[in-house]
From TrEMBL:
<keyword id="KW-0378">Hydrolase</keyword>
<dbReference type="InterPro" id="IPR036412">
    <property type="entry name" value="HAD-like_sf"/>
</dbReference>
<dbReference type="GO" id="GO:0016791">
    <property type="term" value="F:phosphatase activity"/>
</dbReference>
<dbReference type="InterPro" id="IPR006439">
    <property type="entry name" value="HAD-SF_hydro_IA"/>
</dbReference>
<dbReference type="InterPro" id="IPR023198">
    <property type="entry name" value="PGP-like_dom2"/>
</dbReference>
<dbReference type="InterPro" id="IPR041492">
    <property type="entry name" value="HAD_2"/>
</dbReference>
<dbReference type="Pfam" id="PF13419">
    <property type="entry name" value="HAD_2"/>
</dbReference>
<dbReference type="InterPro" id="IPR044999">
    <property type="entry name" value="CbbY-like"/>
</dbReference>
<dbReference type="InterPro" id="IPR023214">
    <property type="entry name" value="HAD_sf"/>
</dbReference>
<protein>
    <submittedName>
        <fullName>HAD superfamily hydrolase</fullName>
    </submittedName>
</protein>
Length: 253
């Protein structure tokens, strides 16, 4: 049996319902970038979510450049990264709410003292901290237990690159087999899986049973160990992973 001591939570639409708010701001900026280059396509927040869910804004801009065949100077990229961060944070501080049922589970986990808890996100560190502070989750995570692929790494990246999970393992002094990641997106799940970490696939933030079933299938196909439809199932999902032999993660390394 695996001895799990570390829980690694994605933030956006796993801890905090933030994706929709963030993509509203992202769409405005993406459309401005396209308009500057006389590209007539325009995005809504919902369309951006469909195309780029799980990526941070830097990763999204790389994808946009590839899709439309243009290059952005480094100074322009940095300008828009900061602008997007500011606009998203403003929306989050006004409207963000926790994912349904997550507060009760975080409270139980903190009371039990069985697991160390950390946040591992693609989003910028300022944005992650603003999100968890707004919904009063910051009390569950030590200040140095919040990791950002966009900010924490020497070279900024985005999930599905496993770099941020490998970085978190190093900083937390944990082996992959001691951890469980909770992820809601394809890119997030892949990031953890590529780092050798078992994944609970959370689909409760997706709208409607059909979409949840679709995402559950996709995330299991990628290699997630178990699907969680509601945070009330967390304890049983975690037990399923703890009851599996340790080899189930080492095989992914």
């Amino acid at each position: 049996m695996a001895k799990i001591t570390q829980l690694l939570f994605d933030c956006d639409n796993t801890l905090v319902m933030s994706e929709e708010l963030a993509f509203e701001a992202c769409a405005d900026i993406a459309n401005e970038i396209l308009a500057k280059r006389d590209i007539t396509d325009r995005y809504t927040g919902e369309q951006l979510i469909q195309d780029f869910v799980g990526q941070n804004f830097r990763g999204m801009m790389i994808s946009l450049q590839g899709k439309y065949g243009f290059e952005m100077p480094k100074d322009e990229i940095e300008f828009y990264v900061k602008e997007e961060e500011n606009q998203v944070i403003a929306k989050l501080e006004a409207k963000a709410v926790p994912c349904t049922g997550v507060m009760e589970e975080l409270e139980k986990l903190q009371r039990s003292g069985q697991y160390d808890m950390a946040v591992v996100s693609s989003s910028a560190l300022r944005r992650v901290r603003a999100s968890i502070k707004k919904v009063n989750q910051d009390k569950y995570f030590k200040h140095d237990h919040v990791f950002s692929a966009a900010t924490s790494l020497p070279k900024p990246t985005s999930k599905p690159d496993p770099a941020i999970y490998l970085y978190a393992l190093e900083k937390l002094n944990k082996k992959a087999t001691e951890c469980v990641a909770i992820e809601d997106s394809r890119s997030g799940a892949l990031s953890a899986i590529r780092a050798g970490i078992p994944v609970i696939a959370y689909v409760g933030s997706y709208p409607g049973d059909a979409k949840r079933a679709e995402m559950a299938g996709k995330l299991i196909e990628l290699g997630a160990q178990v699907v969680m439809k509601d945070w009330s199932e967390f304890e049983s999902c975690l037990k399923q992973i703890e009851d599996q032999p340790v080899e189930r993660s080492e095989a992914n390394l």
